[in-house]
Queue: 3 jobs
Job 1
Amino acid sequence: MNVGDLVTLSSRGKKLEICWRWLDKWMAGKLVGLVLRVDEPRYNYDHEKKYTVKWIGDGPKGRQRYHGPHWHRSDLKFVAKAKK
């Protein structure tokens, strides 16, 4: 998954506590976002890349409330590749 790709929440992502509000929108196929940035892990205990997603319309801010607006790869599902 790269910058510019379209994504939606995966089945694991929709089970996150922060995403309960957008479950109906996700089920209708209307929750789609654009990957803006991909960050490498900063620390030794951090094992996953962090994806910053801008949702089209209204969507969840991030995986956790207090740790920034990012998602893990397992929370997202690929929709369409960016055109180059």
Job 2
Amino acid sequence: MKKAIWILWPSFLVACVAELVFFSVFDPVDFQLFGPLGLSRRAGYSIGFFLFWGIAASSSALTCFLQRSAGEVNRAP
């Protein structure tokens, strides 16, 4: 549980800042892949936030994975 908190809380804060910075420049209604997506602003902000949170959580999880000691890595199951 402690590692989940180490991963999710900092990534939540980073996602908040990333969303504020990104959506202060771009409007989610204007995004198009192969045509208009038809999303409301609220849906665009929500999807963007969870994407940023996922990216930041992946980064935090990789950091926790790489900071293991040699004893933890080489421990027999």
Job 3
Amino acid sequence: MNKKPITIDDLAVMVQKGFTHTDEHFTQVHEQFAQVHRELGAIRKELLGVVYRPEFDDLQERVRQMEDILSVLKKKAV
């Protein structure tokens, strides 16, 4: 087995081959992040105006209390 010594040029070619597909990989990653960004934007638009459950429950309790007060006032007025 006669091994040929590796020259700087050989090494440069090997390194270049290793980086050949790296650009393609980064392009794919960039496209995937762009897609995620678009989807998050769409989700944010759908969530505008959404009332969260604790806020809804609090509001529902306050309305119930107001209805109770109005009911008592109605009875007093009659």
